[in-house]
Amino acid sequence: MRKRTIRLPRLRRRLVLGGSAGLAILAISAAPLHAQQQQHRQRGMDPEQRMQVLQEKLVLTDEQAVALEPIFAQHDEKRRELFESRSGERQAMREQMQALRGELDAGLAEVLTAEQMASFRGLREEKRQSRRQGQGKRRGPPTDG
Fold first, then answer.
1. More confident residue, 104 or 84
2. What is the 3-class SS of 53-102, one letter each residue?
3. Reported pTM
Protein backbone atom coordinates (compact mmCIF):
# COMPACT_ATOMS: atom_id res chain seq x y z
CA MET A 1 0.00 0.00 0.00
CA ARG A 2 1.22 3.41 -0.89
CA LYS A 3 1.04 6.27 1.54
CA ARG A 4 -1.16 8.96 0.32
CA THR A 5 0.18 12.49 0.64
CA ILE A 6 -2.18 15.32 1.03
CA ARG A 7 -1.50 18.11 -1.36
CA LEU A 8 -2.69 21.53 -0.48
CA PRO A 9 -3.61 23.88 -3.23
CA ARG A 10 -0.74 26.16 -4.17
CA LEU A 11 -2.28 29.32 -2.77
CA ARG A 12 -2.97 27.74 0.62
CA ARG A 13 0.57 26.31 0.74
CA ARG A 14 2.03 29.73 -0.02
CA LEU A 15 -0.09 31.35 2.66
CA VAL A 16 0.96 28.80 5.26
CA LEU A 17 4.65 29.05 4.37
CA GLY A 18 4.51 32.84 4.06
CA GLY A 19 2.72 33.18 7.38
CA SER A 20 5.27 30.94 9.09
CA ALA A 21 8.14 32.94 7.64
CA GLY A 22 6.46 36.16 8.70
CA LEU A 23 6.05 34.94 12.27
CA ALA A 24 9.68 33.88 12.39
CA ILE A 25 10.82 37.29 11.19
CA LEU A 26 8.56 39.00 13.70
CA ALA A 27 9.93 36.89 16.56
CA ILE A 28 13.52 37.59 15.56
CA SER A 29 12.97 41.33 15.25
CA ALA A 30 10.97 41.60 18.50
CA ALA A 31 13.72 40.19 20.74
CA PRO A 32 16.06 43.23 20.51
CA LEU A 33 13.09 45.56 20.97
CA HIS A 34 12.07 43.74 24.14
CA ALA A 35 15.63 43.93 25.48
CA GLN A 36 15.74 47.64 24.69
CA GLN A 37 12.46 48.20 26.53
CA GLN A 38 13.79 46.31 29.56
CA GLN A 39 16.90 48.51 29.61
CA HIS A 40 14.72 51.62 29.35
CA ARG A 41 12.65 50.45 32.32
CA GLN A 42 15.74 49.99 34.45
CA ARG A 43 16.65 53.64 34.09
CA GLY A 44 20.20 53.78 35.06
CA MET A 45 23.49 52.08 35.14
CA ASP A 46 24.20 48.64 36.38
CA PRO A 47 26.09 48.48 39.68
CA GLU A 48 29.47 47.89 38.04
CA GLN A 49 29.11 50.93 35.77
CA ARG A 50 27.95 53.06 38.68
CA MET A 51 30.99 52.08 40.76
CA GLN A 52 33.34 52.83 37.86
CA VAL A 53 31.86 56.30 37.43
CA LEU A 54 31.98 56.99 41.16
CA GLN A 55 35.56 55.77 41.45
CA GLU A 56 36.57 58.16 38.67
CA LYS A 57 34.53 61.18 39.75
CA LEU A 58 34.92 60.87 43.53
CA VAL A 59 38.43 59.36 43.53
CA LEU A 60 37.43 56.51 45.83
CA THR A 61 39.90 54.32 47.61
CA ASP A 62 39.57 50.56 47.20
CA GLU A 63 38.24 50.29 50.76
CA GLN A 64 35.59 52.92 50.07
CA ALA A 65 34.50 51.16 46.89
CA VAL A 66 34.10 47.86 48.74
CA ALA A 67 32.17 49.57 51.56
CA LEU A 68 29.80 51.32 49.13
CA GLU A 69 28.72 48.20 47.24
CA PRO A 70 26.39 46.80 49.94
CA ILE A 71 24.97 50.27 50.62
CA PHE A 72 23.99 50.72 46.99
CA ALA A 73 22.77 47.11 46.72
CA GLN A 74 20.44 47.59 49.69
CA HIS A 75 19.20 50.90 48.29
CA ASP A 76 18.56 49.36 44.87
CA GLU A 77 16.61 46.49 46.41
CA LYS A 78 14.41 48.79 48.50
CA ARG A 79 13.83 51.04 45.50
CA ARG A 80 12.89 48.08 43.30
CA GLU A 81 10.43 46.84 45.94
CA LEU A 82 8.88 50.28 46.17
CA PHE A 83 8.35 50.51 42.42
CA GLU A 84 7.00 46.97 42.18
CA SER A 85 4.47 47.61 44.93
CA ARG A 86 3.21 50.83 43.36
CA SER A 87 1.11 51.19 46.42
CA GLY A 88 -0.77 54.39 46.54
CA GLU A 89 -0.69 57.84 45.20
CA ARG A 90 2.10 59.80 43.67
CA GLN A 91 2.74 62.04 46.68
CA ALA A 92 3.15 59.06 49.02
CA MET A 93 5.54 57.46 46.54
CA ARG A 94 7.56 60.68 46.34
CA GLU A 95 7.83 60.83 50.13
CA GLN A 96 8.98 57.21 50.28
CA MET A 97 11.61 57.90 47.60
CA GLN A 98 12.87 60.92 49.56
CA ALA A 99 13.15 58.76 52.68
CA LEU A 100 15.12 56.16 50.71
CA ARG A 101 17.40 58.87 49.36
CA GLY A 102 17.98 60.09 52.92
CA GLU A 103 18.90 56.57 54.02
CA LEU A 104 21.32 56.29 51.11
CA ASP A 105 22.92 59.63 51.93
CA ALA A 106 23.34 58.62 55.58
CA GLY A 107 25.06 55.40 54.56
CA LEU A 108 27.29 57.19 52.08
CA ALA A 109 28.23 59.85 54.60
CA GLU A 110 29.66 57.14 56.85
CA VAL A 111 32.06 56.06 54.08
CA LEU A 112 32.81 59.18 52.03
CA THR A 113 34.72 62.28 53.04
CA ALA A 114 32.89 65.62 53.17
CA GLU A 115 34.40 66.64 49.81
CA GLN A 116 33.41 63.35 48.20
CA MET A 117 29.90 63.65 49.57
CA ALA A 118 29.59 67.18 48.14
CA SER A 119 30.81 65.87 44.78
CA PHE A 120 28.29 63.02 44.94
CA ARG A 121 25.45 65.47 45.56
CA GLY A 122 26.69 67.56 42.64
CA LEU A 123 26.65 64.51 40.37
CA ARG A 124 23.13 63.68 41.52
CA GLU A 125 21.98 67.22 40.74
CA GLU A 126 23.60 67.11 37.29
CA LYS A 127 21.78 63.85 36.57
CA ARG A 128 18.50 65.33 37.77
CA GLN A 129 18.95 68.39 35.53
CA SER A 130 19.80 66.30 32.47
CA ARG A 131 16.74 64.11 33.12
CA ARG A 132 14.53 67.19 33.30
CA GLN A 133 15.93 68.52 30.05
CA GLY A 134 15.41 65.12 28.42
CA GLN A 135 11.80 65.00 29.57
CA GLY A 136 11.10 68.33 27.93
CA LYS A 137 12.47 67.07 24.63
CA ARG A 138 10.26 63.98 24.67
CA ARG A 139 7.11 65.98 25.10
CA GLY A 140 7.54 67.68 21.77
CA PRO A 141 8.81 70.94 20.36
CA PRO A 142 7.99 74.16 22.20
CA THR A 143 5.17 76.21 20.81
CA ASP A 144 5.83 79.68 19.41
CA GLY A 145 2.97 81.00 21.55
1. 104
2. HHHHHHCCCHHHHHHHHHHHHHHHHHHHHHHHHCCCCHHHHHHHHHHHHH
3. 0.59
